[in-house]
Amino acid sequence: MKVLITGGTGSLGTELVRQLLEKRVPDTNGPMYTDKYLTTKPVERIAIYSRDEQKQEVMRQLFNNHPALRFFIGDVRDERRLELALSGIDTVIHAAALKIVPKGEYDPSEFMKTNVNGTNNVIHACIRTGVKKAILASTDKAVNPVNLYGSSKLMAEKLFVAGNALSGSIGGRGCKFSVVRYGNVVNSRGSVIPLWRALAGQGKPLPITHSDMTRFWITLDQAADLVLSMIPVMKGGEIFVPKLPAFNLWDLAVAIGPNGSCDNIGIRPGEKIHEALISPDEARQTFLQGDLFIVHPPWDAPVKPAFAYSSDMAEKLTVEELRERLT
pTM of the predicted model, to two decimals? Predict the structure, then answer.
């Protein structure tokens, strides 16, 4: 397996590299939608494609200059540079994106250049260089988006699904494109848990935007494992959504700072009370297999009754369960 990770120096990219190097390599001929897909064959090459040379150097040192690692300075906005980096690559994990919601509202054109145009460049570069499979890491914010970031990720998802028609993979040829969609990653950079822990340690009140707000729970290692697990089983055009537990933000605040107080600061622009991972319209072409929802592509979409999958409907973690997971 020769894989390139766009945005590879980010949190997800770093965890993907760790799992690829330390754990296992997906068997691209494995069974459909199961976890019995792994071999002991070492990964041949992991190419990291990102803009920040300093983060690349930090990653190189973190993994002790592993011989399988290659580093390319580049931007997904640059299609020609992408094509050079993809030479000899068979699998692409597209994780590069601008993600900070308020910045998307302030600099929408920059978000579009990276999240939409950049994704389109990845698709065309994959097709031109003979990549076999490409998978997009997406977000709950792409479902019924209320902010620019979510809108750009929805467009990225649409482009990836449509990429199968462009490449000819629907007929069994060409590069296959699929999507993995999940919610906010626990303890990721900029998330609420590190902030609240720091404030609780200082004895300060925890800011909470709405007492009824709910979110899904997924850790960084689970997110990376999910992405890697879908590579061998994807047929092209699917959107893979994990079935996850959820939690109430108020319960999380109690779990982190049980003796502290909370400040209700109100919902911020572009923020939802509940996360949604599957919309009612998508539900008509969605099926649950084990702990995985699979949104079938439009050309392979059996129709069924609509439902919604959002964090207010999912099984909730208790305060004690949250404390256990926070340790």
Answer: 0.87
